Amino acid sequence: MPDVSRTEIGRRLFSLQKEKSIEQALEKIRKNLGEEWRDFSQEEIDLLKHALGDAWVFIERDVWEKIAFSRLSRRDVLDLIAIGRESRAKEIDQRVAVEKASRVLRATM
Length: 109
Hints:
- By secondary structure, the chain is an all-alpha fold.
- The protein has one domain (about 5-105).
- Helices cover about 70% and strands about 0% of the residues.
- The chain has five helices and no strands.
- Helix 4 (about 75-90) runs antiparallel to helix 5 (about 95-105).
- It is globular and about 45 Å long.
- The N and C termini lie far apart (about 45 Å).
- The relative contact order is 0.14.
């Protein structure tokens, strides 16, 4: 069994926590939108995950836990998808993407 550094274990744990938090948020969004969720393509869902992932890294955990993902509207989700698209295409930097996504997410609190 290869030696794995504490740093690598920490990175993997961080990545797993991030993925779990994003999947939980997506499930709440999906349930809230119901049939409308089917209108989103896999690419749009991936962009939404990207935007949520960027935000998760920089938003404090106690604030993240207070975000009511189940209250996000279709318009909010479309805004987050657009932010994810801009960020992935490097049209905006990660800091700007996080600020924009945070505004959308914090409006649910």
